[in-house]
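Hi F.,

I've been meaning to write this up properly since the lab meeting, where we talked about keeping a consistent format for the predictions we share between groups. The idea is simple: the sequence comes first, exactly as it goes in, then the structure tokens exactly as they come out, then a line or two of notes. No screenshots and no reformatting. I'm using this chain as the first example so we have something concrete to point to.
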Amino acid sequence: MEISIIISTYNSIEWLKKVLCGYNQQTFLNFEIVIADDGSKEDTRVEIKKLKKEVKYTINHVWHEDNGFQKSQILNKAINACKAPYIIMSDGDCIPRKDFVEIHNNNKEEGYFLSGGYFMLPMNISKLITKDDIEKNNCFSINWLLKNGLKKSFKNNKLKAFGTKAKLLNFFTPTKPTWNGHNASGWKIDILAINGFDERMQYGGQDRELGERLVNLGIKSKQIRFSAIVIHLDHPRGYANEKSWAINNEIRKNTRDLKLKYTDFGIIKN
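Output, unedited:
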């Protein structure tokens, strides 16, 4: 097993089924999926059990009881469960293009983590996408998306850029290569060295804070946001609140100011 892919989810089985269908179309298949489930109900477990028999890859469903938004906790449990030396992280609302895993695999390098992006879709198109559209790659076609209501934008280049054009856009984009929970990858040994996610952090930047500790450790970052493509399905964000953002911003500030490499509130508890 060369790669473990952590997919986070919470009570969103219809979106998760579309995402797992996307991984079934991958050109590189030497990977496992580890589902980091933050307390979904029984219907999610039942559907995942069915999907295990249909897909080309291994699925490990890591679950804990619902105790509010505890994504950092379940991600740490999923990291521990990963069998491969290299980990890709994404979300249960992000459908990968068929070359997604191959791009991450081809660009992985010791001493680096990879920073990908996403292409946000509106709710009407998110609902419209079928299993057949994923298998035929329709949902990554600009023409198909425009036909179904997508507005024209420079951001559409994310879906039109391949090869040299994608590399040039990666190089010239003003966006910094940060650790993004929806599309990032790195070596398990590096993630363990910084003790994974800080479990004090709920919604709001906990993925960026992990990346900041990786940088403090001496790990560099590479930009692949125009190469490794996922389309992001729309959904409500009822878990977002000002209090969690305030707590998380203070933790991130402390990490940056003190150049912290390790959290005492991660996988290993002191």
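Notes:
Residues 242-258 form the longest helix (17 residues).
The beta strands are 3-9, 31-37, 58-63, 86-91, 94-96, 112-115, 119-120, 183-187, 220-223, 230-232.

If this format works for you, I'll send the rest the same way.

G.
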